[in-house]
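Researcher: Going back to the complex we discussed earlier. I've cleaned up the inputs and rechecked each line, so this should be the final set. Can you rerun the prediction on the complete assembly and write out the structure?
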Amino acid sequence: GAGVSQSPSNKVTEKGKDVELRCDPISGHTALYWYRQSLGQGLEFLIYFQGNSAPDKSGLPSDRFSAERTGGSVSTLTIQRTQQEDSAVYLCASSLESAAYNEQFFGPGTRLTVL
Amino acid sequence: AQSVTQLGSHVSVSEGALVLLRCNYSSSVPPYLFWYVQYPNQGLQLLLKYTSAATLVKGINGFEAEFKKSETSFHLTKPSAHMSDAAEYFCAVSEGSGGGADGLTFGKGTHLIIQP
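Model: Rerun complete. Updated structure for the full complex:
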């Protein structure tokens, strides 16, 4: 079956512009996660959805970051007024349910470059 | 709070030699532990996970890891390295009390280099 897909695979934008990153989880997976991977910070957890609800948004780096999930499926991560430090690979993962022992299945990521 | 330390940002072994990638964790509750592999320009793939059943966990591609509570370690091993094992390896921890809401906490990663 299809894995986690993300689009676009690459995004180059100018400082100050807004960007939207999309994640399509594996069908039937109720839990969805966003991570950021950068050279300086490694892999950082950003936010988690159980269904359409995100219980804790404190992992988002700043108030320029927001995320939503609709219909218990597709999720979008939006970064407003992008800054150069936002340049990173943004990874999405999904799991069957939100239990901590469940495997998270990762997408290929979106590489964001802010000029 | 949970954390993961991976000793050695780069590890180089000869093809056919033993692979040992080190991971130590810190967790306030019994942890769930994972090893993921990342090939260039790809997402992360699960190698194996520890979920409080057997302490010696076998994974894909001949890898295994042993959970040692007394040493707070979860080192990854493979008896004989293959050229296709060259990749970035990440150790991760998840605390059961978070129910998954805290996500995975990853180590900085270890780049495995296989010498012919």
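Model: Worth noting: The radius of gyration of chain A is 13 Å.
Researcher: Good, that matches what I expected from the previous run.
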